[in-house]
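Handoff note, outgoing to incoming analyst
You'll be picking up this chain. Sequence as last confirmed:
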Amino acid sequence: MKIWVDADACPVVIKEILFRAAERTGTPLTLVANHPLRTPPSRNINFLQVESGFDVADNEIVKRLSADDLVITSDIPMAAEVIEKGGYALNPRGELYSADSIKDRLNTRDFMDTLRASGINTGGPPALSHSDRQSFANQLDKLLARYSANK
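Most recent structure output, in case you need it:
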């Protein structure tokens, strides 16, 4: 298992949790972004800078993804592609997407896009809470433990 991070929009606190998990478990972690990022020196942590552009980082992750890899993203269409390729998609709030849940999330996303296009202000997501961070860390630990047990 490798962990791929859609790093352009990933909160710093989530990256820090991922850095610690990669070091603790020896799991390869690659952050993908279209701008330079600092990462701690580690043989387990890599950074891949891609060209700027719409979905360039997302497309690069999906292209390199193998079945059973984990992708950290809040991008719903990308999560759907990850699941379709046999990977796992986890958002920074700790929600592990499944084949069933991603369909509902895509429908909700499309509905909200329609509302925004008609001029309705739908607001954005709330700030990442302590509970969200804890949920993310717990879900990540479960996935990494399940992977190590199946090695």
